[in-house]
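A reminder before we start the practical. When you read a complex entry, don't treat the lines as separate problems. The point of joint prediction is that each chain is placed relative to the others, so the output describes one connected object in space. Small molecules and nucleic acid strands, if listed, are placed in the same frame. In the example below there are two entries. Take a minute to note the order of the lines before looking further.
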Amino acid sequence: VTRRLAALALAALAAVVHFAFTVPTRREVAMTVDAYGRARVDRHAAAGRLAALERRRDARAKAVSAANAAADPAATTRAVRLAVSRVLETSGAGGVHLGIRPGPEGADVAVTARGSADDVVRLAGDLARPEVGVVLGLVQMTRSADLVGVQIQGRGVARP
Amino acid sequence: VIGDRDFSTRRRRRAGSAVDLALLAGGVIAMAGSGAAAGSAWADLRHARASLDETRRATAEAEGKARALAGEGGAAGLLGARAIWTLEAPPPRVVAAVAQAMPDDVRLDSLALRYGTELEVDMSVVARSAAAYDAFLEGLAKSGSFSSVAPGNESRDRLVRASVRARYRRSDP
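Here is the predicted structure of the whole assembly.
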């Protein structure tokens, strides 16, 4: 009888542990995992927002510091010309004319070219890449016959 | 004719003893299983809570940094603003946004992007019909990439030739 009572007590205790602790705990685990999933989405959004703001800060700081630090306008102009030339060499556009003059904040950049729509859009996009160091002012594309002419004006802030 | 009788003084084993032992073993196993399940649930809960806390802490940290950065903006003048537009709206991206709003019967003749504190977009388009041009204007306005979509001069002959001015809208971080 004692053994049976002990067995009964153990079974009862096991049931109590299961229903009073394990089941609510499992339910709480499920809720916590759901909250974790939502928190991960929030974290991803926050990280994306922070990364975009950091890119903005870096682009702004790079442009302004490069412009302010242009102690030797001729050296800046040479650096800008070199960076822009590299882009032009790899572009598929033709009829390229490049004008670079020292300006008050960096160097004034003017590029005209002709080519297919894809080529001129790619050229404008390549010039806008941060590592090239051109801050765009005006990009004008005009269709004539089968080609597109592009005129790009900007401020070169590449460091010597 | 006397049957075998047990005169021993040793206590006889009760018949139910094996069943009792089996029940006891079952109880022990049930208790052990229940305890193990409870322990596992508790460990899972601790792990899930730690992950949740860590994620919330990282989110709060990123949001704090983002707020601080957002508060810093705007002090770099026109060149800084143009640098940000150049970064976030290079010509291929703007051209793609225009193309997305453009019906088949509309062609872009010229496109000018003016980078300043805002990115102004001037377009000259040729449409086969007024309806196609209307659809283009509606597509621009609804695209989410442009605001202040303003139709300009418009001439109608066999084709519709028109100019449109709009502002490119970058996604706010």
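Discuss with your neighbour: The longest strand of chain B covers residues 146-156. What might explain this?
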